[in-house]
Write a structure and sequence with these properties.
The structure holds 2 protein chains of 2 kinds. Chain A is of the alpha/beta class. Chain A has a domain of 246 residues: Alpha-Beta Complex (Amidase signature (AS) enzymes). Helices cover 39% and strands 12% of the residues of chain A. Chain A has an 11-stranded mixed sheet, with helices on both faces. The longest helix of chain A is centred in the last third of the chain and has 25 residues. Chain B is of the alpha+beta class. Chain B folds into 3 domains: 283 residues, no CATH class; 113 residues, no CATH class; 58 residues, Arc Repressor Mutant, subunit A (Orthogonal Bundle), CATH 1.10.10.410. Helices cover 40% and strands 20% of the residues of chain B. Chain B is built from 15 helices and 16 strands. In chain B, helix 3 links the parallel strand 12 and strand 13. The relative contact order of chain B is 0.09. The chains are: A alpha/beta, B alpha+beta. Chains A and B meet through helix 10 of A and loops of B.
Chain lengths: 488, 476
């Protein structure tokens, strides 16, 4: 049962074959057994999980079950929750308790979900390997010497190792899709503005978006259906957007007439040959399902990483100013004066990568450099958006590898930030354009999962859910459980 | 050689909305520290701003009232700096694209009306308040003010002396009050001014400016500007050079000191606020706001002069605030026969008495109806103007109407010819020499007789009738 999908668990619950408490116990047992090795969760309160499960069973006994009734969902440590700590895996927020629930947390509760713990992540979501977490590295269940991707690495590892059937992540430059890819699961980043950001600890406000990390496409759709929708208290949450019939979109079994764009910029020298082979095979299977593969170009792709590493740190440098030791968070011992309190508290509280990005962003916004960096990066962002608009005149969806490589070894890139930044080379452009994307398993390279990424125009999650569902239906990749530590 | 002074002003006006700029917290002044706060204005992680559209509409209204352009699309930016009373570590403001650009105010100067350009009005949020005094080396922070909506109104450097600066500020202060976009109470910090001051020789380019910070009364502003002008002139005449800096005026010492130089100036690293989409108005919405524009002080002044025949002075006094003008018009409505008498009694008598007790017109113990009741008794000769002043004095501390007070004090004027004639005869009998003198041509003695008659009547005789009857009876 632990490797069941959300949909399967839901069916069994609806059929009365199991209870929320029974399901919660199964996952709590697995967390107790395997989390020490994986460090996917940084906080877990089993009693509170069981309380929620009991409440759900009681609700089901007297009401019609809600869409996610009794289903356990793990939560990335970036979402504010009234219950338990919310620490963003940073020492500056150590033991911080949020006074309110994030909008998506409220939505999950309203849908009857059982919220399970807080998952490990790169500090403030800044990283691609979960190695910048202040609460210890997280291991990839497929090979525990390797990274689970990041920044939502804990969520990805938890789902891949079946410590939870599904998890919530956030994606600023690929932080849902890349870890999903390297952990062999499915991860959806919705269109920017589809899901409220209120209560998600901000990294880069114009790029952050929450989404599901699951075993299957349909599971991702189930969660997105629950968490999406307008929130009047997030001014970037877009009202009156085209709605998607989330579950119906996943009923697609073929790709007849679907025009799939294959951008040449995403099939580059230096990418892992096993990844290339897996993607090429996947695209052939898509053709067999009736799709037409069309070679396209997204000409400004090579500038995306550079633009991202100006825009995201610039926004972050301001977003992280509130951690000033005045009202909450870490404060140094016996500050001499205000400046000492600021500098020492922030020096002690932030890790190296967070400091690097604050400095980068502060520099990019500085007088005399602003035009050359921030303004230029925004111009590039406009060009990248335009690339996608042009491309979607020719094709319905775009398919690419999610990452040019599979999971790398722990510590392999920690000393080389630039190489680390390139792990997001295929995911970043989508955030800059604000478009939806999904990563799903499409095979292995040397025994490590490879992710296939689908991209669609804004608000057309239905197109990529449909294509990914058809592909998933025609292949067996999602049925492959992670083999970790020899214990699974 | 003479000096030219160049002054530009930045005024922070607190917009009088019920709730804050980006959250639902109350803006009420004077609450217990940190009781009017929420996760948004405390800068808690994950919280997001939502613009108070009422504050935006009030900014548009202000822009229209200064004849400015309304930007149908304006944008918000972050201004970054660290300070304990700035919870997010940045202030949300508008930098390159503010809501209002390019207006003006016409101000009275000793050489006639002068037009002062207004560069822009932008919307922003206030910071909290830090308190250091008497806390034994600790600082306390009150974040009730954090996120309160502000308009920053930036003038062109069009003012040539402190008096013009004050005239501009008073005009602006009056305007925002009339528009009901701000309570503009300077003591509560709802109307604060920074002044940019420089001097130059006529015909030369602009001199280096100093910025004077946080001036919160008209008197200090005048003092601070005059001090700064003299400081700069003396400095240059002694062969020195003005440096660009921010200076803080110490009202107790009457002098300013340098707060930070240009080198120490903050780099605020402005960039577009990603949490807020551009603010959009349609032309129709702007037109609707314009249609709801109340009568402005200038228009009201002119109307009072033409409609009620008031002198420019009285019209000015009675249009200083909307409350005054409304009070005056209520008075006229209750005593329509003589708008000028209304103006005299309100401006000279009532306001004078209110000033003594520091009472605002809105809290006047005498209502327009009660004052009109008194004016009616003057008009129908029941009492003299002099006696009426005593009645008004009594009305200030009593709830009785004029008639009751007149009755109680026995102030009813004697307008009966027989009674007045009887007193006149008594007085004439007691002053035969003066009667003879008057009849011999000493006309000035009439005043003596008036005085005597009034005294004898204990002030109750109708002075007009006394005059008339005296002239008649003294003829002999």
């Amino acid at each position: 049962m632990p490797f069941s999908t959300l949909s399967e668990l839901k069916s069994r619950l609806d059929a009365g074959e199991t209870t929320a408490v029974e399901i919660a116990r199964i996952y709590l047992d697995r967390i107790a057994e395997f989390n020490e090795e994986l460090n996917a969760f940084v906080d877990i309160d089993p009693a509170h999980v069981l309380e929620q499960a009991q409440a759900s069973d009681a609700y089901r006994a007297s009401h019609e079950a809600r869409p996610l009734e009794g289903l356990p969902i793990a939560i990335k440590d970036i979402f504010c929750t009234q219950d338990g700590p919310t620490q963003c895996c940073s020492n500056i927020l150590k033991d911080y308790h949020a006074p309110y629930d994030a909008h998506v947390i409220t939505r999950l509760k309203e849908a009857g979900a059982v919220l399970v713990g807080k998952t490990n992540m790169d500090e403030f979501a800044m990283g691609s390997s979960t190695e910048t977490s202040a609460f210890g590295i997280c291991r990839n269940p497929w090979d525990t010497d390797r990274i689970p991707g990041g920044s939502s690495g804990g969520s990805a590892a938890a789902v891949a190792a079946a410590l939870a059937p599904a998890a919530l992540g956030t994606d600023t430059g690929g932080s849902i899709r890349q870890p999903a890819s390297v952990c062999g699961i499915t991860g959806l980043k919705p269109t920017y503005g589809r899901v409220s950001r209120r209560g998600i600890i901000a990294f880069a406000s114009s790029l952050d978006q929450a989404g599901p990390m699951t075993r299957t496409v349909k599971d991702a759709a189930m969660i997105t259906a629950a968490i999406s929708g307008h929130d009047a208290m997030d001014s970037t949450s877009v009202p009156n957007v085209p709605t998607v019939d989330w579950l119906a979109a996943c009923d697609q079994t073929d790709m007849k007439g679907l025009r799939i764009g294959k951008p040449k910029e995403y099939f580059v020298d230096g990418m892992d040959s096993g990844v290339r082979t897996a993607i090429d095979t996947a695209l052939s299977q898509c053709e067999a399902l009736g799709a037409e593969i069309i070679d396209i170009s997204l000409p400004h792709t090579d500038a995306a990483v550079a633009a991202y590493y100006v825009i995201a740190p610039s926004e972050a440098s301001a977003n992280l100013s509130r951690y000033d030791a005045v009202r909450f968070g870490h404060r140094c011992e016996n500050p001499e004066d205000l400046l000492d309190m600021y500098t020492r508290s922030r020096d002690e509280g932030f890790g190296a990568e967070v400091k690097r990005r604050i400095l980068t962003g502060t520099f990019a916004l500085s007088s005399g450099y602003y035009d050359a960096y921030y303004i230029k990066a925004q111009q590039v962002r406009t060009l990248i958006r335009q690339d996608f608009i042009n491309a979607f005149e020719q094709v319905d969806v775009i398919a690419t590898p999610t990452s040019p490589v599979t999971a790398f070894r722990l510590g392999e890139k920690t000393d080389d930030p630039l190489t680390m930044y390139l792990s997001d080379i295929f995911t970043i452009a989508l955030n800059l354009a604000g478009l939806p994307g999904i990563s799903q398993p499409c095979g292995f390279s040397d025994g490590l999962p490879v992710g296939l990424q689908w991209m669609a125009p804004a608000w057309r999650e239905d197109l990529i859910l449909g294509a990914a569902s058809a592909y998933e239906n025609a292949t067996d990749w999602v049925k492959e459980p992670a083999k970790f530590g020899g214990k699974a | 050689m003479s000096w030219e002074v160049v002054i530009g002003l930045e005024v922070h006006v607190q917009v009088n909305t019920k709730t804050k700029q980006f959250c639902g917290c109350s803006t009420e002044f004077g609450a217990e520290p940190n009781t009017q706060t929420c996760p948004v204005c405390l800068g808690m992680p994950g919280q997001l701003p939502v613009l108070n559209m009422e504050a935006a509409r009030k900014s548009v209204l202000t822009g229209l009232a200064i004849n400015a352009d309304i930007n149908l699309v304006s944008k918000f930016d972050r201004k970054n700096y660290f300070y304990p009373d700035l919870p997010k570590g940045y202030q949300i403001t508008q930098f390159p694209l503010p809501i209002v650009e390019g207006g003006y105010l016409d101000i009275p100067t000793k050489d006639g009306e002068k037009r002062i350009g207004i560069t822009r009005i932008h919307m922003e949020e206030d910071a909290g308040k830090s308190m250091h005094e008497g806390l034994d080396g600790v600082s306390h922070i009150d974040l009730n003010r954090s996120g309160v909506p502000l308009m920053e109104i930036v003038s062109e450097p069009d003012m040539a002396n402190a008096d013009e600066a004050i005239a501009y500020l008073k005009q602006l202060h009056q305007l925002v009050c009339f528009l009901d976009v701000s309570d503009a109470n300077m003591e509560k910090g709802q109307f604060r001014c920074d002044a940019n001051v420089s001097v130059r020789r006529p015909g030369e380019p602009l001199g280096t400016r100093a910025e004077l910070k946080n001036l919160n009364s008209f008197r200090f502003i005048k003092q601070a500007i005059e001090y700064e002008v003299n400081r700069q002139i003396e400095l240059i005449e002694d062969g020195g050079e003005v440096v660009q800096e921010t200076r803080l005026f110490d009202s107790a010492k009457g002098e300013s000191r340098s707060m930070r130089s240009k080198e120490e100036a903050h780099d605020y690293r402005y960039f577009p606020e990603p949490d807020l989409p551009p603010l959009r108005f349609t032309q129709e919405e702007v037109d609707a706001i314009r249609a709801g524009m109340p009568e402005l002080p200038g228009q009201l002044r002119k109307r009072f002069e033409t409609e009620y025949g008031l002198s420019p002075y009285d019209a000015d006094v009675l249009t200083q605030t909307r409350d005054l003008a409304t009070w005056y018009e209520s008075l006229v409505a209750a005593h329509p026969a003589d708008p000028k008498r209304c103006a005299n009694w309100m401006a000279n008598e009532l306001l004078g008495r209110l000033k003594e007790t520091g009472t605002d017109i809105s809290a006047s113990p005498v209502s327009p109806a009660r004052l009109a009741g008194l004016l009616e008794r003057i008009a129908d000769n029941t009492i003299s103007g002099k006696a009426a002043k005593d009645v008004l004095d009594a009305m200030m501390t009593s709830e009785d109407d004029a008639d009751a007070i007149i009755e109680a004090k026995g102030l009813k004027q004697v307008s009966d010819t027989g009674a007045i004639d009887a007193i006149i005869h008594e007085v004439m009998a007691a002053s035969p020499d003066q009667v003879a003198g008057y009849r011999a041509g000493k006309d000035k003695l009439l005043g003596f007789f008036v005085g005597q008659v009034m005294k004898a009547s204990r002030g109750k005789a109708n002075p007009g009738m006394v005059n008339q009857r005296l002239k008649e009876l003294l003829k002999g």
